[in-house]
Design a protein that fits this description.
- Its main location: secreted.
- By secondary structure, this protein is mostly beta strands.
- Among the domains are: about 5-190, 3-Layer(bab) Sandwich (Phage tail protein beta-alpha-beta fold), CATH 3.55.50.10; about 220-350, no CATH class; about 370-450, OB fold (Dihydrolipoamide Acetyltransferase, E2P) (Beta Barrel); about 665-770, no CATH class.
- It has 3 helices and 40 strands.
- Strands 1, 2, 3, 4, 5, 6, 12, 13, 14, 18, 19, 20 and 21 form a 13-stranded mixed β-sheet that branches.
- Strand 2 (about 15-25) and strand 3 form a beta hairpin.
């Protein structure tokens, strides 16, 4: 009897004979075949069969064109003897596609700036089996795609399901090839079975005739529209929602599905996902199941059906899934004939096929921590949004540099439109990462934590009462280079410390109030500059001490008023310069004591008026020089007393004294002048020696220059009338003197110039030495 099914294994064909096979195969499914084989060898090495190919060769109605089912032996077991008494041992092989190996590998890996197709092909490349890309669409590039705690198969499956990509297998004698598809054009007609006839099961036909024996069409209500939506922080006001509506022609066909987090960044991508999601939902709207003896029935291929009593079924269909039931007749004589059954599921090719999203998304189950990374030599690595890159602890492929992840958004204490708080995580710091929607490819940093390499700025637990913010200067900063705002909450030692590593700028647009309950100390090691645009008011209730070791310069362009109610003391150890461009008025209600240990120079370009309502006492320890460039007028309304302990010299071409009473008390009075005019009706001289004298020691001839005449002198209360007459021809002068109120006669004497210095007469009131000097100058 000719065999319909033959098995090809690594062993000789006589060592393993095909007995039966049951299995399923479908679009976007890992086929599984349970193949029973017979062998005369009960001692086959089971391990040697694992990972080896097993091929079933099935004879078809197409002469010379057998069909093959090719797969990998993933389980091989001895299942006893055939019928219990046969000399053949039954071996059962489980056969799966090479894609099944991806279920044996699990990984955590980050893919960046790749399309889903590129990611899938990168995963496939690690296995070295055949696949064929028959995709029609162009797929967007993903900035960030993560495989997380999932098998390679689960990872590529959920990506393909998301994008609307599905697959099937083509089988031949030497291999099976995975075909990636997203459109009907990726499916070929079934070789040799482009058209398949329908014959009802109750009709008698030849057992060798390959036809459809059962046909069970079905339709169901599916949603008529699908809306997807997402959010992109780079376009926060943008509308990413997209709707795909295509209700089928029946009642209640317009129900909508709305999906949030459609996993896309732009509206254009949303159109693709809305369409794919609706096609996924409606792919189940019209399906037909059946039973056939068509040995070429295979998933991923098309055929046209005919002879169906339902005319609408006579159209092209895509095979979605096939269940195989193959049993070869016994190898002993008189054995039962073989059975070759194919149960299938198809859908019209007018209805796009999409694999259902049945692979679960990996969930993190909560936040994780990661380390901030960046380029070598950098301390801070961020972008315009304040995002940073991280190295996840589970990422064994990352190099802990700027390529380890995408830029990850950072949560701050406050975030508004150009306001809020910014604390950019720095390279090497450990951060807490959560995931939007629990999706590992949408991380966001929500916090920061310390570790053994990144210790707190306070020595804990000893400084547990401290809290605050301590920064670090960058680049190359050490713990000693920081800005800080520290709060000390220890009872009795509460403190707020504000430290600026370099500059501190404070801006207050309205009022600012400072209240210090105790002492306030300010140390400025450099220069201080203050500008008050609207005036300054300072009130010191308990006195003020101001010490300026260097110079001080104050400029007041407007008026200045200074009121000191309880005395003022100013000590200036260096020089002081005061310039007043306008007038100055000073009112001192009390006394003024001014001590100048050095010289004083006062320059007044205009007039000076000093009003002293009380006494004016000035003591000059050294000399005093007063220069008046114009008239010097002095008005004394009361007595004027001048005490000179040393010589007083008045040197002037002309001296005029106008007084009603003029009293000069002195022991020695010398007046050197060319001309002296005394316009005094009553002149009293109380002195032992009274000289109006200018000595001339010249031997030349003399000429008359002047005449000195006084009407009366009061000498020790004795009235004396005196006149002096000089002549050019005489070598001397005549002195005429009459004593009034006395019995003495008029006294007249000629005094030679040689004896002119000492003349006089003893009067009754005491000795009087008179010296009268004529004021002469040398003649020609």
């Amino acid at each position: 009897m000719a065999r319909v099914v033959r098995a090809h294994t690594p062993l000789d064909e006589s060592q393993l004979l095909f007995r039966s096979m049951r299995g399923t195969e479908g679009l976007s499914q890992l086929f599984e075949f349970e193949v029973d084989l017979l062998s005369p060898d009960a001692g086959i090495d089971l391990k040697s069969m694992l990972g080896k190919p097993l091929v079933l060769e099935i004879q078809t109605a197409v002469a010379g064109s057998p069909r093959f089912l090719n797969g990998q032996i993933v389980r091989f077991a001895a299942a006893g003897r055939e019928g219990g008494t046969s000399r053949h041992t039954v071996y059962r092989a489980t056969v799966r596609p090479w894609l099944w190996y991806l279920t044996r590998s699990s990984d955590n890996k980050i893919f960046q700036d790749k399309s889903v197709v590129e990611v899938i092909e990168e995963v496939f490349s690690d296995y070295g089996f055949a696949y064929e890309n028959k995709l029609c669409e162009n797929y967007r590039q993903w900035e960030y795609c993560v495989q997380y705690n999932e098998s390679d198969f689960a990872f590529v499956s959920r990506l393909m399901e998301l994008e609307g990509i599905y697959y099937y297998f083509k089988h031949d004698r030497n291999q099976h090839t995975l075909v990636l598809a997203d459109d009907l054009s990726a499916h070929e007609p079934t070789p040799g079975y482009e058209t398949v006839d329908y014959f009802a099961a109750d009709r008698d036909i030849s057992e060798d005739l390959e036809v459809i024996r059962e046909w069970q069409p079905s339709e169901e209500i599916r949603s008529g529209s699908y809306t997807v939506n997402d959010f992109n922080f780079t376009t926060p006001k943008g509308d990413l929602s997209n709707v795909r509506a295509q209700p089928r022609q029946h009642d209640h066909a317009d129900h909508e599905i709305y999906e949030w987090l459609g996993d896309y960044p732009s509206p254009g991508d949303g159109e693709h996902y809305a369409r794919v999601r609706l096609e996924e939902v409606q792919a189940l709207a019209q399906r037909s199941a059946g039973h056939a003896t068509v040995r070429g029935m295979a998933p991923g291929y098309r055929f046209n059906m005919r002879n169906s009593p339902r005319g609408e079924d006579n159209q092209e269909h895509l095979v979605v899934a096939v269940s195989y039931g193959l049993r070869e007749g016994g190898y002993a004589s008189g054995a039962e004939p073989g059975e070759y059954d194919f149960n299938f599921v198809v859908q019209p090719t007018a209805l796009p096929f999409r694999a259902p999203r049945q692979t679960p998304l990996p969930r993190t189950g909560g936040p994780q921590t990661a380390t901030v990374v960046g380029p070598e030599g950098e301390e801070i690595w961020t972008d315009e949004y304040g995002r940073v890159k991280v190295q996840f602890h589970w990422d064994r492929y990352g190099q802990s540099n700027e390529n380890s992840s995408r830029f990850v958004r950072v949560s701050h204490i406050w975030a508004g439109e150009r306001f809020g708080g910014v604390f950019t995580p720095r390279i090497g710091q450990e951060v807490v990462v959560d995931f939007i929607g629990g999706r590992v490819d949408r991380p966001v940093i929500v916090g920061r934590v310390y570790n053994a390499d990144q210790m707190p700025p306070f020595a804990l637990p000893g400084e547990a009462t401290k809290s605050g913010v301590v920064t670090r200067s960058s680049k190359g900063g050490s713990p000693a280079n920081a800005n800080a705002l520290v709060f000390e909450d220890a009872m009795g030692a509460e403190q707020i410390l504000l430290h600026a590593e370099r500059n501190l700028d404070t801006e207050v647009e309205a009022d600012e109030t400072h209240t210090t309950g105790a002492t306030r100390t300010t140390l400025i090691k450099g220069h201080e500059s203050a500008t008050y645009e609207s005036g300054e008011e300072r009130h010191i209730t308990a006195g003020a001490v101001e010490t300026i070791d260097g110079g001080e310069e104050r400029t007041v362009t407007g008026g200045a008023t200074e009121t000191v109610t309880d005395g003022e003391k100013r000590t200036i150890t260096g020089g002081a310069t005061e310039t007043i461009t306008g007038g100055e008025t000073r009112t001192v209600n009390g006394g003024i004591v001014e001590t100048v240990n050095g010289s004083v120079q006062l320059t007044v370009n205009g007039s000076t008026i000093r009003l002293v309502s009380g006494s004016d006492i000035r003591i000059v320890g050294g000399g005093r020089i007063e220069i008046v460039n114009a008239v010097d007028t002095k008005i004394v309304l009361g007595p004027d007393t001048t005490v000179v302990t040393g010589p007083k010299i008045v040197d002037a071409p002309t001296i005029v004294h106008n007084a009603t009473n003029y009293t000069l008390n002195t022991s020695n009075y010398t007046l050197n002048a060319d001309v002296i005019v005394y316009n005094v009706p009553d002149h009293t001289v109380n002195t032992d020696n009274h000289f109006h004298w200018r000595e001339k020691n010249y031997h030349a001839s003399w000429v008359k220059k002047s005449q000195f005449t006084a009407q009366a002198y009061d000498i020790y209360a004795i009235k004396v009338m005196l006149s002096v007459t000089t002549f050019t021809s005489l070598n001397g002068i005549f002195v005429n003197m009459a004593v009034v109120n006395s019995n003495e006669n008029i006294w007249q004497k000629k005094i030679a110039f040689a004896d002119l210095k000492i003349v006089g007469k003893h009067l009754s009131k005491g000795a009087l030495r008179l010296a009268y000097g004529a004021f002469w100058v040398r003649g020609n």
